[in-house]
């Protein structure tokens, strides 16, 4: 507040402009808060580009396929540096930007105050991302264990999975769903995904059936046409309705129905969208507080893609 007045307004202006042009950039930012903070804490390690000294940074990890919005964060960082050089970390900017994206994609229903004062990390390793992030192929037991390592509960696992109301997934992340049995995925939706995934080496599909193109839905699940959304990538509790109908992209989504406590929470959030808005906001705050490893060195990067040269 004192050393860089108005920084949050600068971030919000850029995020709003980007989302107006393409709502997918908002979904990309929401994904980044998770993919950054679950690996070495919220230290912007996910933003570092590979270099000859470190060719395998986090963003090169297979589990980070399709991460985006890096250019947008570069633009925001440049604007912030212009205003107050050397004061605001990329880590803080990422949190502010993801917070604003979640708010804008939900029409303000997801909202929270984000604390600042993080430092940017100087380490970034693809192997750590592979080890710390949950995979779309995980079973419920693996998901629960993965979240527990970061001190997140089964309830918070279910809450954060709700982010799959927006954004896209790669066919390579949902291959197993194309042959999954009818009790795990609606056969008509399986057919829709199979058709789309046959169209190239690794196409993307909307995470939310409600964002599918009308043609694909008309050909496979015509009864679902009235539920398609006019505004795509709207962040709400529709993920839980989709999940109960067995119309979700990833195995890790469907797995939430296979354990009693998790399944109870899926029903709870399907029934109460306002509760999810509040609990998702709280879970993002908790994510945003994940610390760097004990004793880590940090800095304020000049550019988000590279560590400073000392």
UniProtKB/TrEMBL annotation:
Record: residues binding heme b: 164
GO biological process: hydrogen peroxide catabolic process; response to oxidative stress
Active site feature: 35
The record's free-text note on cofactor binding: Binds 1 heme b (iron(II)-protoporphyrin IX) group per subunit.
Gene3D superfamilies attached to this UniProt entry: 1.10.520.10, Peroxidase, domain 2 (1.10.420.10)
Domain Plant heme peroxidase family profile: 1-308
Cofactors that this protein relies on: heme b; Ca(2+)
Catalytic activity: 2 a phenolic donor + H2O2 = 2 a phenolic radical donor + 2 H2O
Enzyme Commission numbers on file: 1.11.1.7
Residues involved in substrate binding: 134
PANTHER family cross-referenced by the UniProt entry: PEROXIDASE 25-RELATED
Recorded family membership: Belongs to the peroxidase family. Ascorbate peroxidase subfamily.
Protein name (record): Peroxidase
Organism: Aegilops tauschii subsp. strangulata
Lineage, uppermost ranks: Eukaryota, Viridiplantae, Streptophyta, Embryophyta, Tracheophyta
